[in-house]
Automatic annotation (TrEMBL):
Residues that hold deamido-NAD(+) according to the record: 374, 403, 522
Catalytic class of the enzyme: ligase
CN hydrolase domain location: 5-246
Protein name (record): Glutamine-dependent NAD(+) synthetase
Organism taxonomic ancestry: Bacteria, Pseudomonadati, Pseudomonadota, Alphaproteobacteria, Hyphomicrobiales
Entry annotation: catalytic residues: 45, 114, 150
Pfam family, one: CN_hydrolase
Annotated keywords: ATP-binding, Ligase, NAD, Nucleotide-binding
Residue positions binding ATP: 291-298, 398
InterPro entries the record matches: C-N_Hydrolase (IPR003010), C-N_Hydrolase_sf (IPR036526), Gln-dep_NAD_synthase (IPR014445), NAD/GMP_synthase (IPR022310), NAD_synthase (IPR003694), Rossmann-like_a/b/a_fold (IPR014729)
Assigned protein family: Belongs to the NAD synthetase family.
UniProt: L-glutamine binding residues: 176, 182
Catalytic activity, as annotated: deamido-NAD(+) + L-glutamine + ATP + H2O = L-glutamate + AMP + diphosphate + NAD(+) + H(+)
EC numbers, comma separated: 6.3.5.1
Length: 555
């Protein structure tokens, strides 16, 4: 049995379903592991399919191809001296499994199955997989190693069983998506496991955007006393090598790299930028377009897009109508200039007036209302989609979580677009991030530093400018109040009575509840966006569209 181990964690960005491309990424990691003379190379959960392949797992050919790719990769370990820990889909006892195969010198020497299949929130693993039994350790280079897979460590019994059966080190491959505070939650979890079990753990996560989820990487290694001995980068790929020696107290890290962690304000920005970049790139687009109104939401989306793609790949269009103020035009142009992006002005005056004219026989002499207002938004949506079609850029949509909650957006108008980086940010959080980005340039972001969002945009009252002198507050409660109620109602799922007990007016809470319920049909038809909180609209939140429930608590 060896008393030294060099272990590499490949924190990579696989694309779901891209079996051949993911296999090439894995081969590259194997080459790096050989060059770094590592004993063990670990890949993240379901690496070759990417996490999570959803109903691709119902296609028998996909499973056949994924298992063939796993065999190819196992064969590539021949004469490398590297033991590969490869998480993959697998068949065992006639059932589909979320598994790990361990390969050495070209052969598969062991397989282990995931025992705890998460089935809540954004996870549906029991829809596809059958759980394995409590896993036994695997002996690698004479060392008994435990390989719990992701959710397995969220319950005490899997690690406890592995250690009782002799595991001296735990290697945990993950597909663990980011949301607020998740990095701390994971560390506290692992700390608790290690305090119970007394062995070190290497925790590997994948990185990258996958539809609405962002995987933040931030892989780490921890000793039984809770000390962090290795820490990979957040929101970037990384290759984390650590050296371990057998001491009187068990395996301890003798050399590991600890990266500085991202700050609490930086993480949502980085998550939005990475989620946006990967959604657009993995969908085959290189450029994006958006309507730049001179308001805060489109300014922040433009800044995120510049951070994701660089100024040359972002196209902003101002689409004025007669209610568009001179201040909005000046602010939009100023913002585009600060960001260094292409800026065009396309008036919607004539097409809107032409539509209104043609509709006169149908509208008759009914009073002006939301119908005329929405034509402006829909004309902007039409123009922007035309530019997307012609120039091949993806249209970004800009509705924040507060607006998406209460339906304050025009369906088939400003809701047009392929992706929405603000979807899980309440309005006040959008302001906060704008100020934060003006003062900070995060790592891995391609935009300029300094005040890239003009202060006048941050300071002015939000307005849709669909009629003269309109402000959002004509239709909605002040955003600080609306956001506080939404946080309680949507994110914490509190009852009306509980929200009123926090000091909010009952009539207002009931009004917001009604708006939130009614707007479900809009959200179902809305673009995907980055999930940042445990309760994002979209993946993981399943509410009926036709819904007769009304909360009468405390009445
Ligand atoms: N349950 C349901 N299932 C399916 N469809 C349903 C539906 N209920 C209504 N509808 C359809 O939806 C239509 C109503 O929705 P919609 O046409 O969007 O119109 P609506 O929601 O009435 O108005 C849009 C609101 O968003 C505001 N807005 C617009 C643009 C930008 C901003 C901003 O500041 O960001 C704000 C605008 O001031 C207005 O208050 C109905 O006419 C009907 O066709
Ligand atoms: N005059 C305009 N020119 C270009 N795009 C516009 C214009 N007005 C609205 N849009 C687009 O429609 C979206 C919704 O805009 P609107 O101004 O109605 O509401 P908002 O939520 O206050 O957004 P913002 O803060 O960006 O203004 C904007 O983010 C922008 O993408
Ligand atoms: N892939 C998984 O098993 C993930 C589940 C786990 N609760 C997490 O978010 O990390």
């Amino acid at each position: 049995m060896t008393d030294r181990l060099r272990i590499a964690m490949a924190q990579l960005n696989p694309k779901v379903g891209a079996l051949r491309a993911n296999l090439e990424l894995a081969r590259g990691a194997l080459d790096d592991a050989v060059a770094a003379r590592t004993d063990l190379l670990m890949l993240s959960e379901l690496f070759l399919t990417g996490y999570f392949p959803e109903d691709l797992l119902f296609k028998p050919q996909f499973i056949t191809d994924a298992i063939a790719a796993a065999h190819d990769l196992a064969a590539a370990t021949r004469d490398t001296g590297v033991t590969l820990v490869l998480p993959t889909v697998w068949y065992e006892h006639g059932a589909l499994r979320n598994a790990v195969v361990v390969a050495e010198n070209g052969e598969i020497v062991a397989t282990r199955l995931k025992r705890e299949l998460p089935n809540d929130d954004v996870f549906y693993e029991r829809r596809y997989f059958i759980p394995g039994p409590l896993p036994e350790p695997v002996t690698v280079k004479g060392v008994p190693i435990g390989i719990p897979i992701c959710e397995d460590i969220w319950h005490p019994w899997v690690c406890a069983h592995l250690v009782r059966k002799g595991a001296e080190i735990l290697l945990c491959p993950n597909g663990s998506p980011y949301w607020r505070n998740k990095q701390h939650i994971r560390k506290d979890l692992v700390r608790a496991r290690l305090a119970e079990d007394g062995v070190p753990m290497l925790y590997l996560n994948q990185v990258g955007g996958q539809d609405e989820l962002v995987f933040d990487g931030a892989s780490f290694a921890m000793e039984p006393d809770g000390r962090l001995v290795a820490q990979g980068k957040s929101f970037e790929t990384d290759f984390i090598v650590s050296d371990w020696a057998l001491t009187e107290d068990g395996w301890r890290c003798v050399e590991g790299r600890v990266e500085e962690r991202t700050s609490i304000d930086e993480t949502p920005w980085r998550a939005c930028v990475l989620g946006l970049r990967d959604y657009v790139h993995k969908s085959g687009f290189r450029q994006v377009v958006l309507g730049l109104s001179g308001g805060i939401d489109s300014a922040v989306v433009a800044a995120m897009a510049v951070d994701a793609f660089g100024p040359d790949n972002v196209h902003a269009i101002m689409l004025p109508y007669r209610y568009t103020s001179q201040a909005s035009r000046t602010d939009a142009e100023d913002c585009a200039e600060r960001l260094g992006i292409r800026y065009d002005v396309v008036s919607i005056g004539e097409p809107v007036d032409a539509a209104l004219h043609e509709l006169t026989p149908i509208f008759g002499n009914r009073p002006l209302d939301i119908a005329e207002e929405n034509i402006q938004s829909r004309m902007r949506g039409l123009v922007l989609m035309a530019v997307s079609n012609k120039l091949g850029s993806m249209l970004l949509t800009t509705g924040n979580k507060s607006e998406m909650a209460v339906g304050y957006a025009t369906i088939y108008g400003d809701m047009n677009g392929g992706f929405n980086p603000l979807k899980d940010l309440l309005k006040m959080q959008v302001y906060h991030l704008a100020r934060w980005r003006n003062a900070n340039k995060p790592d891995g972001c391609l935009g300029p530093s300094g005040e890239i969002i003009p202060i006048s945009i941050i300071d002015k009252a939000p307005s849709a400018e669909l009629r003269p002198d309109q402000t959002d507050q004509d239709s909605l409660p002040p955003y600080p109040v609306l956001d506080a109620v939404l946080e309680a109602m949507v994110e914490q799922e509190l009852s009306v009575a509980e929200i009123v007990a926090k000091g909010h007016d009952r009539a207002l809470v009931k009004h917001i509840e009604k708006l939130v319920n009614i707007a479900e049909y809009k959200r179902r038809q809305s673009a995907p966006g980055v999930k940042l909180t445990p309760k994002a609209f979209g993946i993981g939140r399943k509410y009926p569209i036709t819904n007769g429930y009304r909360d009468e608590s405390g009445s």
